[in-house]
Amino acid sequence: MPSHSDEIRRIFYGRRRGRKLHAAKRQLMAATLPRFAIGLDAGLKHPHNLFDPPPARLWLEIGFGTGEHLAAQAQAHRDIGMIGCEPFLNGVAALVETIERNALHNIRIYPDDVRDLLDALPDASIERCFILFPDPWPKRRHHRRRFIGAANLDALARVLCDGAELRLASDHRGYVRWTLFHTLAHGAFEWTARGPADWRQRTDDWPATRYEAKALARGDECCYLRFSRRSRSLVQKIDDGNTDALPPSTR
Q1: The pLDDT of residue 9
Q2: I need a labelling partner for 44 at 20 to 30 A (CA). Which of 138, 167, 244, 245 fits?
Q3: Which residue, among 9, 85, 104, 100, has the nearest Cα to 40 in the 3D structure?
Q4: Which of 79-93, 130-144, 149-163, 218-232 has the lowest mean pLDDT?
Q5: Helix, coil or strand: residue 101
């Protein structure tokens, strides 16, 4: 858990509000969001109990935008509890509208900084995590604002189960290289790609997002990265210097 001084230094970069919500959407948010929003309280010690009935598995999406990917996953996997994090109020409002329209009762929303949520979740509680088209912060002086980095990868490694899947997507080549460098250097994650098609093509179980559609309309290429959370026992062997524990392809 972060110290008090770490919490003071934690700065959020990004928008929290956009255009003013219409009256009808404000009313919907007031009436509906409290039913699906989660807070940083003792309930997160057993996050499965946030759902009724409690699901066997939990998936997490970090920065769900307007929620189309999260909603599609929730609709396709009604037996899985979906936790979505998005601090942008207008995006949260769009997802709330979708939840109501499609009766998606297996979604819970944390409408704030995901780092605080990661701190509160118990170890090995998440079986799949999505980070799709995050802000690439392209200027060099802003690279430290990028989500993928040692501290956040530490937090993800802690909350992900052994063998859990981490999916990341971006249309920014610099950010893709950054993601591969930092994630592979971390040690807890293995890139599962075995050929170019594995990162050039989105699989059928990976619903599209509007950010992806915009990128493709501009003629930009998108990259789809999948990582597997290595077992804790394997990571410990690696930390102890036992490289023989690694698969031959990754030594």
Answers
A1: 54
A2: 167
A3: 85
A4: 130-144
A5: helix
Among residues 113, 116, 135, 198, the one annotated as catalytic is 135
Per the annotation, the verdict on 41 as an active-site residue is no
Q: How far apart are alpha carbons 51 and 80 in whole angstroms?
A: 10
Query: Which phi and psi angles does 119 have, rounded to 5°?
Result: -60, -35
Instruction: Let me know: does 232 contact 162? Beta carbons within 8 Å.
Output: yes
SS3 letters for 95-147? HHHHHHHHCCCCEEEECCCHHHHHHHCCCCCEEEEEEECCCCCCCHHHHHHCC
Model confidence pLDDT, tens digit, residues 135-152: 886 888 889 889 999 999
Rounded CA separation 46/75 (Å): 23
Residue 89 in contact with residue 17, Cβ under 8 Å? yes
pLDDT at 47: 95
Asked whether the beta carbons of 84 and 67 are under 8 A apart, the reply is yes
Name the residue with higher pLDDT: 43 or 248: 43
d(CA 205, CA 101): 22
SS3 call for 130: strand
Residue 78 is classified by DSSP as T
* H or E element, residue 22: none
Instruction: For strands 80-85 and 57-62, give the pairing.
Output: parallel
Enter the CATH code of domain 4-250.
3.40.50.150
**Rounded distance between C-alpha atoms, residue 90 and residue 78, angstroms:** 25
Q: How many CB atoms lie within 10 A of CB 34?
A: 8
